[in-house]
Amino acid sequence: MNNIQNYLSYWRDRYKEDLTTDILPFWMRHGLDRKHGGIYTCIDRNGDLLDTTKSVWFQGRFAFVAAFAYNHIEKNPEWLEASRTTLEFIEKHCFDTDGRMFFEVEEDGTPLRKRRYVFSETFATIAMSEYAIASGDKSYAEKALRLFKDIQHFITTPGILEPKYTDNLKAQGHSIVMILINTAARVRAAINDPALDKQIDESIATLKKYFIHPEFEALLEMVGPEGEFIDTINGRLINPGHCIETAWFILEEAKHRNNDPELTALGVKILDWSWKWGWDEVYGGIINFRDCKGLPSQDYAHDMKFWWPQTEAIIATLYAYQATHDEKYLEMHRRISDWTYAHFPDYEFGEWVGYLHRDGSVSQPAKGNIFKGPFHIPRMMIKSFMLCDELLRSI
Prior knowledge:
Strand order of the largest sheet: 1-2-3
Order of helices and strands: HEHHEEHHEHHEEEEHHEEHHEEH
Number of strands: 12
Shape: globular
Distance between the termini: 15 Å
Radius of gyration: 20 Å
Helix content: 55-70%
Largest sheet: 3 strands, antiparallel
Low-confidence stretches: none
Structural class: mainly alpha
Mean pLDDT: 97
């Protein structure tokens, strides 16, 4: 790629500008609940509130992002305060009496729904750890570590989490394995504990041993207890965006370990495989789901383009370039960035739409719901700003 320095400078400045003048201001203005605390995410295209139901996932996600931006973009006291008040809402309203967290609550914190997953807990954990770094309040690092160990207890103790399937199907899923890599890494940035590195080691070993299937050149979403291939629609599922996210989690860990060559090779391999499965050669962008045998996918949104796989690919390609200095990853970054920025940003009302048809046309224009809100887009902008800045400093 010609003039790499100019390219990286453009994107570094663009990420910071978009984050600070568009994405975070949109959510601070339209999402932040200054009466009850926490964040609304069910927001229409123009910022109007569609639903006052609050996603507990996003209470943790937003508290994390606000503190993450404070730590790495600028010391904006409004971001730090938003993180603090959202964490206060989490601690006051989002935990059940058994120590587990809810999935949805009303705007005042009245619980509505609880699920078998522990993702609410993982997002609250990273929020606490990041806020501890931003505020200097070490008690939040200790809270994050305790909650992390609670998560480990929940997922390893029979009877606490309801099984996804009956005993007739023995299986394990990719999601919890990969999320614990990032959760442990974020807590480790705030507090040291042997359980954190141990969890990262175990998660990566599990991915390598069970979920990576070279016969398909794919990381599968569901496998048997010993990594057995399950020849069903669900067993054949590839989620390219999810796998690309895993790739950059591993590349980040490789970087933490002084550019560990084995982990770097693993992260790059997962990225290469997943890009091949996910990149739409007809229309561009990362597609939602594929079948590892090339058979029809079951999910009704299988051929749509959601916002978050694109953001994960932007981060992953920058990490891969930093790790390898192979310009093919900058070219991949250019392709995904050009497509993403041509289709998702809403230049009239701000922020990004989240749901596109395969050809890039808008499926629905809302800026948020229970699953889309201020996380993947601002996290991408913060991480990518940091990576571009590091690369420029190394030139």
